Amino acid sequence: MVSIRHLWSLSALLPASLCAKYELTLTKSYALQVSDGTNVVVDNSAILSGRQNSTVSAINRNTSHDLAFSFISPTVAKITLKTSDSFNGARFTTAPNTLFYGVWEYPFNDRIDNKNVSYELKGVGNNVGVNWSNARAPFFITSAGYGVYTDTLKMGSYDFTTPGQAQFIFNSSSIVYYIILPKTDSPYKSIIEQYTALSARSEMPPISGLGPTFWSDDFTLDFHGSVSNAQDNIQDVVDHLYYNQIRATSTFADRPYGTGNRSWGNFDFDPKQYPDPGGFIKNLTAYGFDVQVWIANRASANTNLSQNTMLWNASIENGWFFDNYNPLGALGPALNLSIPTAYKYFKEHLNYFPSVGVKGYKIDRGEEGEMPDYVQNEQMTLFLQMAHDTMVEKWGPSKFYNFARSAVDRSRAVTHIWNGDSYADFTGLAYSVASGIRSGLISFGIWGSDTGGYARPGALTPTEEVWARWMWFSAFSPVYELMLGTNHTPWYPPYNQTTVEVMKTTANLHAELTPYIISYAHQAHRTGIPIIRALFLEAPDDNRTWAVNDQYFFGEHFLVAPIVTSGGSRSVYFPHGNTNKYLNYFQKKEVHDAGTTHNISNLPITASPVYVPQGAIIPRGDIYQGNAKWIKDWRPSLTIEIFPSVERGEVRFQYFVGENARRNVSELKMTLYNGLFAKTMRLEYDDLGVEATALVWHKDGSKEVTLNRGAGIVEVEFNETLF
Ligand SMILES: *[C@@H]1O[C@H](CO)[C@@H](O)[C@H](O)[C@H]1NC(C)=O
Ligand SMILES: *[C@@H]1O[C@H](CO)[C@@H](O)[C@H](O)[C@H]1NC(C)=O
Ligand SMILES: *[C@@H]1O[C@H](CO)[C@@H](O)[C@H](O)[C@H]1NC(C)=O
Ligand SMILES: *[C@@H]1O[C@H](CO)[C@@H](O)[C@H](O)[C@H]1NC(C)=O
Ligand SMILES: *[C@@H]1O[C@H](CO)[C@@H](O)[C@H](O)[C@H]1NC(C)=O
Ligand SMILES: *[C@@H]1O[C@H](CO)[C@@H](O)[C@H](O)[C@H]1NC(C)=O
Ligand SMILES: *[C@@H]1O[C@H](CO)[C@@H](O)[C@H](O)[C@H]1NC(C)=O
Ligand SMILES: *[C@@H]1O[C@H](CO)[C@@H](O)[C@H](O)[C@H]1NC(C)=O
Ligand SMILES: *[C@@H]1O[C@H](CO)[C@@H](O)[C@H](O)[C@H]1NC(C)=O
Ligand SMILES: *[C@@H]1O[C@H](CO)[C@@H](O)[C@H](O)[C@H]1NC(C)=O
Ligand SMILES: *[C@@H]1O[C@H](CO)[C@@H](O)[C@H](O)[C@H]1NC(C)=O
Ligand SMILES: *[C@@H]1O[C@H](CO)[C@@H](O)[C@H](O)[C@H]1NC(C)=O
């Protein structure tokens, strides 16, 4: 029998209009089946309902229910179910070796798929490798060739423990879910694209949000030299970055920074630590740093009543707290933001932060038992919206950077993500790489991890080696953010110049790759297709990519294989996608065939395995000054690196020019002509916003040619390609 997945690959090669029309039918046994006219391609084998989530059963014609189903586009079917029971769901059945992806950012068992996972659609809490890696979406993709999205903020659970089966149940007497089929010859990308069109797409971040961002978990500790408060401590970081010429675009104050018990609830900066917050933030902005602060939907009581915070007092007076959730516990309860007055009060007071120049929030918690679990998704969605609105009202869209650890899919329109509290060791790094890939699969495209890990119990935790490997990973992450301070600052003992040098190399590389990264951030914003891509998004027909948990495509033109174990060794698999060969990006000699595996050993911490496919186009350069005030008469510069190959004669890149440009996407189109005596690379380009350089790599080195302002065409001749 021909496998279902195989059939999908065939049909996916054809434009949708040429494909057989999909049909959706309800069988006598109450299964919903999608067929392409010949084969059943989706088997929604049961529709579930029950009084409890533990007692659901398949509905049949005797169950009281209301079921409607139809295709709302050629490749998306919508199913609406209402019953008289409180819990409703669905089961999908596939071949036993099928894999399921999505739902959670957290990589259970260090895997990018959900093999043997059963969990609720909520924050995962403390776990191996990363605590609180909590982005989530009621959406899965299967290697059987389709996706399923349930449009809800209700609590639910997903169960993948039975091989060849996916099941979900929501605490709701009505649900709406969508079966999403591939639409283009990039089947999985097109499923994600259609899913985000139904759910939400990421807001476009500002360049400053991509980092490098340097922050401390507690700027009120670990003073050096003449530093005597948090404000001076941040200044000390700013100065060291300047003198070391390490690029940065932002910084943030995690708590504590305010007054009140737990430093939160009076919407202020502690004057002992920040004598002049407005003046200080203004200065930081002038040095090229955007400033963010920590916030959470949470309040703490004080045993001394007269020291209670505004947020605590107002919530007690008005009955805004969730009852019996940590009322006096170590972290305090959350406000019920479904109460309009609570929401309004909180929002009005948050406005203080943008009023003194703060350009974004690090949004913590919401999944720590401060409210009933079954409202986590609804409450976090409200809080993220509120936080977004206070910023957007002051600065306008895309002019600030908010990032949360607990977010449900619809909130990706109002917040970006960091992956929670990762462990400062290789396990934490490996899990962070897998969580980055998973974050992409649920379309939280703008993502970063605490470089070096979050919990740092001892001296030299992370070790120099762990930290350096993680810095390389962050260089090739959408966001480079690095926690220093509290006795873990690279330029202070016990670290030394080795760590400072790797930090400088990687932070400056990330800054240099900004033109590339921001272009893919814009693609994520427009289409939902993430920047960190599971290998199968780019190589859907290569089934050896399905279980690779520690490699990814970074955009379309980088293949990244971070070192996630001690000793600098690993094997790299080169996927069979739209390239036959890969080139070592840094060394520019070593070439690998697609479909092969390469073993790396003893790679020093000053290097990292990164490859480019045939025909790669990499825009890089210095398009955002940030803190680089050491550069006199700074002007933007842009270089388009090109790696032509005969086997891939035409490649395009959608370059993001900038918010303020007349057209914000410019196309670069590279064509290779294979002549009798030489090869000619032709580059056609739209206006790139600055005068740029094309840097064309070939066997004997590279050639440069100027790309003038405005649209144009250039040609470069050479004898042999690198591939
Ligand atoms: C039912 O809900 C409880 C509480 O939310 C949860 O712990 C459990 O995993 C759920 N069970 C199933 C089968 O979904
Ligand atoms: C529906 O109810 C009828 C009458 O009780 C019964 O004969 C039949 O088997 C039931 N059908 C299903 C599918 O349970
Ligand atoms: C699946 O998970 C359960 C519970 O965590 C575990 O007991 C079982 O061994 C796992 N099965 C497989 C096949 O991994
Ligand atoms: C801001 O910078 C100016 C000039 O360096 C300095 O005099 C002033 O003290 C700074 N203000 C704050 C609040 O840091
Ligand atoms: C601060 O709040 C926590 C609970 O959030 C409580 O345990 C602690 O006693 C409080 N501190 C004071 C000084 O009241
Ligand atoms: C409670 O706090 C107030 C205001 O800070 C202070 O004046 C008072 O001494 C405190 N009371 C006790 C018992 O510590
Ligand atoms: C909170 O209420 C107490 C009285 O219970 C009062 O003494 C205190 O000043 C209030 N806190 C603020 C910040 O207003
Ligand atoms: C389902 O939601 C209701 C509120 O609508 C809540 O009372 C109940 O505890 C929830 N059940 C589960 C298992 O989460
Ligand atoms: C994760 O949580 C556990 C249990 O509370 C704790 O011991 C550990 O330090 C935490 N790790 C991180 C990285 O926060
Ligand atoms: C930095 O410290 C590491 C140990 O953590 C050591 O291996 C290395 O040699 C030191 N480098 C310098 C330049 O001191
Ligand atoms: C990949 O496909 C080949 C050919 O269909 C098959 O033999 C192999 O078992 C598959 N491997 C995986 C990991 O699915
Ligand atoms: C090709 O190689 C020949 C011989 O080395 C050399 O003379 C010629 O300049 C090269 N052509 C190009 C376009 O680089």
TrEMBL record:
Residue ranges of every copy of the Glycosyl hydrolase family 31 C-terminal domain listed in the record: 528-618
Domain Glycoside hydrolase family 31 TIM barrel intervals: 219-518
Gene3D superfamilies assigned: Glycosidases (3.20.20.80), glycosyl hydrolase (family 31) (2.60.40.1760), Golgi alpha-mannosidase II (2.60.40.1180)
Signal sequence annotation: 1-19
Entry-linked Pfam families: Glyco_hydro_31_2nd, Glyco_hydro_31_3rd
Matching InterPro entries: Gal_mutarotase_sf_dom (IPR011013), GH (IPR017853), Glyco_hydro_31_C (IPR048395), Glyco_hydro_31_TIM (IPR000322), Glyco_hydro_b (IPR013780), Glycosyl_Hydrolase_31 (IPR051816)
GO terms under biological process: carbohydrate metabolic process
Keywords for this protein: Glycosidase, Hydrolase, Signal
GO molecular function list: carbohydrate binding; hydrolase activity, hydrolyzing O-glycosyl compounds
Protein origin, superkingdom: Eukaryota
UniProt-listed PANTHER family: HYDROLASE, PUTATIVE (AFU_ORTHOLOGUE AFUA_1G03140)-RELATED (PTHR43863), MALTASE-GLUCOAMYLASE (PTHR43863:SF2)
Family from the record: Belongs to the glycosyl hydrolase 31 family.
Listed name of the protein: Glycoside hydrolase family 31 protein
Lineage: Eukaryota, Fungi, Dikarya, Ascomycota, Pezizomycotina
